[in-house]
UniProtKB/TrEMBL annotation:
The record marks 84 as: Lowers pKa of active site Tyr. This is NADP-dependent oxidoreductase domain-containing protein. SUPFAM superfamilies: NAD(P)-linked oxidoreductase. It holds the Pfam family Aldo_ket_red. It comes from Capra hircus. InterPro entries: AKR, AKR1C, Aldo/ket_reductase_CS, NAD(P)_OxRdtase_dom_sf, NADP_OxRdtase_dom.
Amino acid sequence: MDPKNQRVKLNDGHFIPALGFGTGAPPEVPKSEAVEVTKFAIEAGFRHIDSAHAYQNEEQVGQAIRSKIADGTVKREDIFYTSKVWSTSLRPELVQPALEKSLKDLQLDYVDLYIIHQPVALMPGEAIFPTDENGKPIFDSVDLCRTWEALEKCKDAGLTKSIGVSNFNHKQLERILNKPGLKYKPVCNQVECHPYLNQSKLLEFCKSHDIVLVAYGALGAQRTFQWVNPNLPFLLEEPVLSAIAKKHKQTPALVALRYQIQRGVVVLAKSYNRKRIKENIQVFDFELTPEEMKAIEGLNSNIRYYDLQHFVDHPEYPYSEEY
């Protein structure tokens, strides 16, 4: 099946491709590489591109998208592009300027999805990670319901087609859903999700409110990444995934991606390796049996690679809740 045709309907009537290309890269990857791999991903068949102001690569990703539009590979409406408002712009008056800055970097007229990157607010300013003289993050205090209203205005202004959140727990989602005068529900909650952290309770909660769960870190995490606890087991070496992969003549990565697609989760595949980018699009070429799905379900052990540990003292730190 052609991957760009497998889409999931959002609660606002728009459609999101079930498989997305994640553009976040470790700092050692040169920015120019983002142009090349994003172009390559679009050529390979990816139509859903996920980035963020905090990745500091929107100029390059925008350049790649525009070059693939210019050469006739895709039209703008074929591409589903996600950006995220970073923690230093969660004050309501800073949200639209942040989106306008992203659009200027991208040189696009609109994004398809704009989401709150994470619920922990940081001090506004140029720095992505404002820290004090002791290297501790400088927090800001923001009412996320007001931030949400600012996102609703961005949608009304036509700067984004859809709006959502990321790294929210169910209580934080509930606060927005129960907000007096809510105009638009979040269409998605983008969270870390993989066989070791399958988010089944959060997924159930999101489904009950017609919110799509989008999985990042779906292949575990590169051990080198600065945010990641290096002592955790490496997901792609998991014997259960290897055995299932062997049976289907696929790779463990493809099994981990396929698992999400079959449970109705939109999944991001992040890779700067061309061979693997091409491979990841093959997730639509095979199907896991109910027994295999059950075996993968059984791997859940609440292993969180991206635990935002340095934000743990903020009142909005999301992972103190069970889900």
